[in-house]
Write a structure and sequence with these properties.
The complex is a heterodimer.
Chain A (H helix, E strand, L loop, with lengths): L1 E7 L2 E8 L2 H22 L7 H7 L4 E3 L2 H16 L9 H6 L6 H7 L1 E2 L17 E3 L4 E3 L9 H17 L4 E6 L2 E5 L8 E6 L7 E7 L2 E7 L4 E4 L2 E4 L2 E2 L4 E2 L4 E8 L2 H14 L4 H5 L6 E6 L4 E3 L10 E3 L7
Parallel strand pairs in A: 4-12
Antiparallel strand pairs in A: 1-2, 2-7, 3-6, 5-6, 7-8, 8-11, 9-10, 11-16, 12-13, 14-15, 16-17, 17-18
Helix pairs in contact in A: 1-6, 3-7, 6-7
Chain B lengths: L1 H28 L48 E5 L10 E3 L3
The chains are: A alpha+beta, B alpha+beta.
């Protein structure tokens, strides 16, 4: 398996592929360029991005690129499928809790000042959003500002993997822990994916065996900072506009599509252990594995089929 | 020079008062924001809005501070027991929150 590692989208990107070395090298170059282009399109941290231009155009029709239109449509569908718990319209709320700059910058200082001009409030959702399929135009209501970070990373990882698949027999793109897997690697044909312990970065809690598709994890332990004397993390509950109060430490979702896995991981994390299965029942074909805040591991039906050496219905063992 | 200065001061005063009164009048007569309730389209948008979305009413979530005291188990989720992963057996790829 050949690999390529670099930094993009404020996270580590890992490309892995099997096949002809020369072709794979070409594929890696193509994918790096693709990811750079899409990051520039979807980032909210640059005024020059298409997303920033779209947000500035709220209240009027905006001519979107086909990529932007597709991701917004996917985000809207996932917003409905998760009953609103996945909400891509929380940009102002994110700014109010101090996430108004990249995580790399926040980590440099560790503490961000109280926000000026932005206040936590429940998300308004996508009420009034219009998509013109014929012309790829988008109407954002004046009250809506989009942050597509919750699905764009997964979408980019999937598209990048599909690009890389043209140059390899089996490949994967890992964008900061959200993976899309294509083809069967040598061996038994399944991908071995470590499930990182949310309390011990760098250590795996379990090993997943995944044939293909998407694996995405949301966690409240990794992106944390202080805003004055308030502890913050980046998974907002749209019902309050504040960091979600949940009894999960992390939720991993396996799904056929990367954006689906990413959005449902967030939504199930916000929903908590009591209500996560309500969400899973809305969309068949997805599997949840989560770490509760007492350190125990829990999974939805058939989740143990994806875990090496796992026993279901056993006494849970704390980490 | 004196008349010019006086004229400027009068002009600034008049425009300040007019601006204040105009802004006050606009705010007083502007529409109220749409309530956050299901099925209500946003005011002012073209016809054919996407329609309101209903957030689910979910069970109360234990606070992070009290989570250790909660004895309830998640419904329909199964507890999983896994064998520790030896360091030399860790996969090269991993999933984590980013």
């Amino acid at each position: 398996m050949e690999t390529d590692r670099f930094r993009a989208m404020n996270t580590e990107i890992v490309l892995a592929a099997e096949g002809d070395s020369r072709r794979i090298s070409q594929g890696f170059g193509r994918v790096r360029q693709f990811i750079a282009e899409e990051e520039a399109r979807f980032t909210r941290f640059s005024d020059a991005s298409e997303l920033s231009a779209l947000n500035r155009a709220a209240g009027s029709w905006f001519q979107a690129s086909s990529e932007m239109f597709e991701v917004i449509r996917i985000a809207r569908d996932l917003h409905e499928q998760t009953g609103g718990l996945f909400d891509p319209a929380l940009l102002d709320a994110l700014r109010s809790i101090g996430y108004d700059r990249s995580m790399d910058e926040i980590r440099k200082f560790g503490n961000v000042p109280p926000s000026a001009g932005f206040f936590p409030r429940p998300g308004a959702g996508l009420r009034g959003l219009l998509l013109d399929d014929r012309t790829c135009r988008v109407w954002l209501p004046e009250s809506v500002r989009l942050d597509l970070g919750g699905v764009a990373k997964g979408w980019i990882a999937q598209k990048a993997a599909e690009n890389l698949a043209d140059f390899s027999q089996a490949c994967t793109v890992n964008a900061g822990g959200d993976l899309f897997l294509i083809g069967s690697p040598r061996g038994d044909g399944t991908w071995r994916i470590g499930l990182e312990n949310p309390l011990e970065p760098g250590q795996d809690l379990a090993v997943l065996r995944v044939p293909d598709g998407a694996v995405a994890t949301s966690s409240i332990t990794r992106r944390r900072w202080m805003q004055g004397d308030q502890a913050r993390h980046h998974i907002l509950d749209p019902r309050t506009g504040l960091p979600a109060r949940t009894d999960w430490l992390s939720v991993t979702v396996l799904a056929p599509q990367a954006a689906t896995a990413e959005a449902f991981a967030k939504a199930c994390l916000i929903a908590g252990t009591q209500s996560a299965t309500l969400l899973l029942s809305r969309l068949p074909g997805i599997t949840l594995i989560g770490v509760r805040n007492d350190g125990t591991l829990w999974g939805s039906d058939h989740s143990k089929d994806f875990i090496e050496h796992a026993n279901a219905n056993a006494q849970p063992v704390a980490l | 020079m004196k008349p010019i200065k006086l004229g400027l001061r009068v002009w600034i005063a008049i425009t300040a008062v007019v601006s204040f009164l105009t802004g006050w009048a606009m705010l007083a007569h502007s529409g109220k924001p749409a309530p956050l309730s299901a099925g209500v389209g946003a005011g002012g948008s073209p016809s054919g809005s996407a329609g309101g979305l209903v957030l689910p009413t979910l069970a109360p979530i234990p606070s992070l501070n009290n989570a250790g005291a909660s004895a309830s188990q998640p419904q329909a989720l199964q507890p999983l027991q896994v064998q520790p992963v030896p360091f030399n057996s860790m996969p090269s790829l991993s999933t984590r929150g980013s």
